[in-house]
Amino acid sequence: MNKVDLSSQLKHYFGFDTFKGDQEAIIRNLLKGRDTFVLMPTGGGKSLCYQLPALLMEGTAIVISPLIALMKNQVDAIRQVSADDGIAHFMNSSLNRAALDQVKTDVLSGRTKLLYVAPESLTKDENIDFLKQVHISFYAVDEAHCISEWGHDFRPEYRRIRPIVNEIGKSPVIALTATATDKVRDDIKKNLGMPDADEFCSSFNRPNLYYEVRPKTKEIDKEIVKFIKQNPGKSGIIYCLSRRKVEELAEVLRANDINARAYHAGMDTPTRTQTQDDFVMDRIDVIVATIAFGMGIDKPDVRFVIHYDIPKSLEGYYQETGRAGRDGGEGKCITFYTYRDLQKLEKFMEGKPVAEQDIGRQLLQETASYAETSVCRRRVLLHYFGEEYTKENCQNCDNCLHPKALTEAKDDLKMALEVIRDIKENFKVPHVLDVLIGNPTEEVIAHKHDDLECFGCGDQKDSRYWNTVLRQALLGGYIYKEVENYGLLKLTDEGRAFIRKPHSFMISLDNDFNSDYVDTDAGGTGALDEELLAMLKSLRKRVSEAKNIPPYVIFQDQSLEAMATVYPLTIEELKTIPGVGEGKAKRYGREFCELICRHCEENEIDRPVDIRVRTVANKSKNKVSIIQSIDRKVDLEMLAKGKGMDFEELLDELDAIVDSGTKLDINYYINSIMDADQIEDIFEYFRESETDDIDDALDELEDEYTEEQIRLVRIKFISELGN
Fold it and tell me: What Cα–Cα distance (Å) separates residue 718 from each residue in 445, 660, 661, 670, 695?
């Protein structure tokens, strides 16, 4: 198929004039029958790499996907490019027998071009027997990092994919992932039996995303409310590390008339599923969540991602911020940072194996470096993933929009490089800093580095300054961290050459988070006619609810913004809009064109703005009532029922009461549901543990006890020993 034909098929099915990045090369490779490995960051357009060839090739493509939510969203989306709903199906445990029979009928008749299958479903004998009857065009393994024990989301059932593919019948394989180190990449290819696969690795740069780090103060809730009020009606995700903070912040947002909902792993499955669906369908504007939320959410129009707490790693940060602006439109990534949060996370690591602590601290330090740096954030982020960003100013992060003055540090860099050389390139950043400033720690003395001539050579400046020098030396390519050895600093050839022949080295001092940051509109895209855009979104929402599909499946924000700029009045004109293919124009175009016609006749514009922050109502009366009931030894389950709460909500209240310093005697209840040995076991865990985090307790106690039992004993523990 020649280039013109492939471009015309892209336009016909998806309404796009051009491919993004490596999409066309990947598709052509697959059309040739070649095994293909794709590393493409979130928002890069991975799905299109197997969707378009599936529509063009003979037979049915089998797409192996780990999440039922992701399957349903993608099937809904692909059905919109065709008049035939049978063009795409999914096959997993959520289907009843009648629905499964319909799927099989459509597949065997040749109607279905894409069949999404959960890895667990793929392993069932009846499904293997069925798929043996199907002409399979190729296999697509989505979220392929799940196959690797070295990946961040290992799933053992992914290891069985290749043997089952061999049993069903060989066809080309395309493996796709948004995150993979070299080790994970090799593991994927080895386990999928595709060692000679052609690799396509896209840039991790997301130019449309705006990165900003703000100081975390007592006014953080107010800042977040103001930010959301300044971005009315836009979809956003706010990540918090604790479930309690998720619940509290969601309540604050609702009190300020923001359509927000909480989401965390402690909720029951139906509630989480409904919340996720409501967000995708635009019935909720803002999700406040732990990291349990995100994977499998195929929502391209998330306009902002806020981190209430600093993430534990840059991998996690990149993946979570990557959920913003996947359609190429506006995406603001705001992170709140305080060094106290870093110290708290480090404390939670205590008690874990030493090697795990070392890795965890190294990851935290990388995150801290990113937060504190005054250098282009995009450059720091890409450098972490092994990619060089050569532009001096990205014009789309807080540091580039508000650059700091540069200081000459030629002599200081030479001094730091010489220290790394003199200690044999065998130590991490903290040790290098200690030698530079002359801090005689036990480790420094043990290695006799206090006897070196370079010991204390940089004592005229503090460790914070030297940290800045080392961070920017890493970015400049003068040193590198040996990741496999927990971050030992090594000199590069450029670093050795610099020692011999120094030249100008300008640095900007790290941010201290004491000064105010200026709000910017950076990274945004806006339609010319805001009122029309709102009306188009409202219409899209009504249509989506009537058809029970996510709004973006009908038209993405990009397309609506273009409509609100050029005012297409006919179906033919609508087909010229980016993202509007022939199928969508015919299926939905009439209503949208009629709305645009009416608006053009009326021609009215109104932009109201109102920002006011409300606090959450005081719950002290409810707490007093709960305390009085416990004093009377009321059964806790009866107490929860009487208060109109579920039991977990009551536990949240009890946590808050004891954490605020009030003593509660719930022994009468605990003794009625647990034996003395169980109570003592959990009690002793909290006594010896450095943290009272429930998730850590569940991990440490090896699933011997329920979360409810652990929380009850924690309340007893805090009451008896803390209050």
Answer: 42, 10, 9, 14, 17
